[in-house]
Design a protein that fits this description.
Blueprint lengths: L16 H15 L26 E6 L5 E3 L2 E3 L4 H11 L4 E6 L5 H13 L5 E3 L4
Parallel strand pairs: 1-4, 4-5
Antiparallel strand pairs: 1-2, 2-3
């Protein structure tokens, strides 16, 4: 009579699995970096500070819900805003650009307008509240 050989099944030791999982968790928590959004980088004045400004020194920049821009009541394409602001600042170096957006304006359109103002070296930007 022939004896049948019995093969032992391979076993995976699970006693230290929890330890390994815990160490991997700690490793990834310690080594992971979280990118923080930088935002728009605008310096805001102190609370309660009010200054009287001549109307000639204020240029209204309105953004509607579709992303169209009105600069001083005239329609301007967002990509041309940089040149137009540079020209107006050259005419009046005390110019303050008052940016007002419709409540349904896309955030990306708003950021594009602010970026164009910064590229035009507009140092005086006022963020107006929407009604």
């Amino acid at each position: 009579m022939k004896k049948k050989r019995r093969f032992k099944r391979g076993e995976i030791p699970t006693a230290s699995m929890a330890d390994i999982a815990f160490l991997l968790l700690i490793f990834f928590l310690v080594t992971t970096t979280i990118d923080m959004d930088k935002g728009l980088g605008i310096v805001l004045p102190a609370e309660g500070e009010e200054i009287e400004i001549k109307k000639d020194n204020i240029l209204n920049c309105l953004i509607n819900s579709r992303g169209d821009v009105l600069l001083g009541g005239e329609p301007v394409k967002t990509r041309d805003l940089n040149k137009e602001i540079r020209r107006r600042i050259a005419e009046n170096n005390k110019l303050i650009i008052s940016v007002k957006a419709h409540e349904k304006t896309k955030y990306s359109d708003y950021v594009n307008v602010i970026d164009q103002l910064k590229m035009a070296n507009a140092k005086r930007i006022s963020i107006a509240e929407s009604d």
